[in-house]
Amino acid sequence: MIIHKILVDRTVRRTGILSILLLGMLNVPVLAQLKINGQASAGFVASQSSVSQYVFNQGRGTFAWRLDGFADAAVSDNIAFLSNLRILQDQVLHIDYLVLRVTDLASSGINAELGQIGIPFENLGERRFPWRNPFFSLPLMNEHLTSLSNRDYILRAPDLARPARGDGVHLLDGALYDLGVKFYGELGMFSYSAALIDGMISETGTYGSAGLNTHHGFGKILRLAATPQTGLTIGISYAFGPYMKDDYGRDPNRYLQRILGSDIEFSAGYFSFYGQAAYNLWKYYSLNLKAFAYSVEARYAVTPRLSIAGRAGGLVFNSIASQVYTDTYDPAGFVPYSGKWDNDVLRLEGALLYRFARELLFKITYQWNRTYNVAIDPADDVLAVQAVMSF
Predict the structure, then answer these.
(1) CA-closest candidate to residue 193, choices 267, 265, 117, 134
(2) d(Cα 206, Cα 88) in Å, to the nearest integer?
(3) Every domain of the chain and the residues it spans
(4) In this structure, are residues 200 and 241 in contact, taking their beta carbons and an 8 Å threshold?
(5) Three-class SS string for 152-180?
(6) Looking at the predicted structure, is the pLDDT value of residue 304 above 90?
(7) What sign has the CA pseudo-torsion 144, 148, 152, 153?
(8) What is the SS3 assignment for 253?
(9) N or C: which end of the chain has fewer CB within 10 A?
(10) What are the beta bridge partners of residue 177?
(11) What is the pLDDT of residues 226-254, one digit of tens each?
(12) 268 in helix, strand or coil?
């Protein structure tokens, strides 16, 4: 416990020093214009035990915690510094969001962010954080690891074991942050965003070598949304760019990711609904690796303190006929393969939430995972009990 406290204190000190230094470079009066808040969550997670990427901690029940800190500073009426720092039980400081924001550039109504930006794709938004997320995890389309290796970009036969070790490319890379620049604004009921980032939304450059661009190219993201009435927003997103972190002797601009997304958000009274869908295409040699993903979730406040929520998400992959790599069946490594290039999956989630106080939320969630195109569906359901405090 003493060592744990020392490590946490050291991380907190580093976080505070980093914020003060950044604000000092901006010549911001720290006490006068700095706004700090955060979220702390802790809980217990238990999953079934099998060979599956959805199994948590190899099926051993465990306690887990997370701390998110938000520091915002206004430099002037239209210039600000915004940041989000995250620490998990691994006690490693993650800087997810750190931008310089300029609003109403040259009185044009256009706003800009530069730095570690939030990528404007789909409508995940603040639901990526435990306080606004009714569930323990992110949507399936943000978490699944495909059979395309992120280490050497070799396409492997669908294998549940490899993604369990983290060797797979995401469809959407987690909560979607990357180094880049973003321009955005509003025109009546419409809002728009355009971003240029170091990586691509399946493989961001955030934690690359020195945190810099390792993709030999830039990702381009566009988003347009409309709010025709209060409580209803409909959006469409498109992103394209090279997804390989290294060219391996190939021209990376020949191997692009193109992904089209749509989303809807609706709220009325005690009910809220969020939906997302994406159609993804990876160019891989002469193959087109395609995937369709969706996620829908709804939440209803039964009483001011008690809420229930449900979410369904899935991934569907196309079939190919090609040589794929396997180290199980053939010593030579590559074998002919015909079929889906990854296994179709379905995830259903349910949550019960109780607010003990305005700042304290308690939730119980259950996640049921179903994998198709396999002889036996692995046992990989997950139960989580979590308390979240906002401050």
Answers:
(1) 117
(2) 17
(3) 2-390
(4) yes
(5) CCCEECCCCHHHHCCCCCECCCCCCEEEE
(6) yes
(7) negative
(8) helix
(9) N
(10) 118
(11) 999 999 999 999 999 998 876 666 677 78
(12) strand
